[in-house]
Write a structure and sequence with these properties.
By secondary structure, the protein is mostly beta strands. The chain has helices at residues 69-75, 206-212, 242-248, 296-300, 310-318, and strands at residues 29-30, 37-39, 44-48, 50-54, 57-61, 65-66, 78-79, 90-95, 98-100, 112-116, 119-126, 138-141, 148-149, 152-155, 172-176, 181-185, 187-191, 194-198, 202-203, 215-216, 229-234, 269-270, 286-294, 322-323, 332-338, 341-344.
Amino acid sequence: MRNLPILAALTLPAALLLPSAAPASQSPTLLIASVRAIDTSRHTVVLPVHKGISNGTTVWYILTDVSDASQAKARGLVRAPMLADVGVTMTVIESDGVWSFPAHPNFAPERIFTAGPTGFPPKAAQPGSTAPDEYSPFVHLANSSVVYNAPIVATGDGPFDVTTHRNTLDRVLSLDPKKGTVTLLLADGFADGKRVFYISTEASDAGAATIERATYAPGLAKTPSSARLRIDVVVNGQSQGLAFAALAGGLGQQATSVNSSSLQTSRNVLGGLPAAIDGGGVYDPLWDAYIGAWTDAAVAAKQSVQLHSAAEVQKAADAGLLTAPDGKPFGPAGIAVNCPVVAVE
């Protein structure tokens, strides 16, 4: 069984799982214009899915972001200029409109997550899909410098396993080749005081991939930190954090269309948002994970409030209330995650 190489070793203060006020809910604004449907109460988003090939295997991929403004507008994607500097990319060959990928994930492994006594660290964890070192969701066509975020979410010609996910990403709730759509489980978090909705598709760490129901893609660890934005992950927050997701969020369950509305995430805090659907701005779907834990003193003093912005996180860290889980200063954990933002409230 593959264990969490980074996250499982964390020694944590006592978890506190209390209700906390969050920004008022309202209708979400789509950032990926090509989205077919979104239901934030059921935690689902419907995206176009594209058929490709990889080493003789049929693959199915989505498109969420692109480094080029004209392609963002033409395809209904988010423009993310920072993708041009992501470094770790695959070259795809296009023939008659079909993309050929040099590598793809293996979705056959069983995803396992068993919560520990305080929820996190877990007793056991194993990602439900793995990819070879050469795999990257970030691709460019031959003879082009335009970089797309094109995660592969399923393999084969069907039927598609959307209950135990042996040929689909663990976030895939349905895939309809005839309609050309895939339904994915949404994650929710915060950015700049707003509620945001996103999908997690790959992570450079096996533990993070398990938690995010994403593909373990170790090659992403080679992406430069300058091409990532910060995402803050709290371990023991109030209705927020890894312990909350483990104990109250159903992390041990397989995601399906039946239980999607009951699944909860760690409600991470993102350090940036797209300026507009095709407007670029300081945004990248590739994130650098910062993992923090409230100190015992902060918990005892009831200062471990739910955090809604990077500024709030940094304020807590500067005050010594939030540290790395081992007590060292709060900072990057060395984990890269691909989390395209879909919508914002």
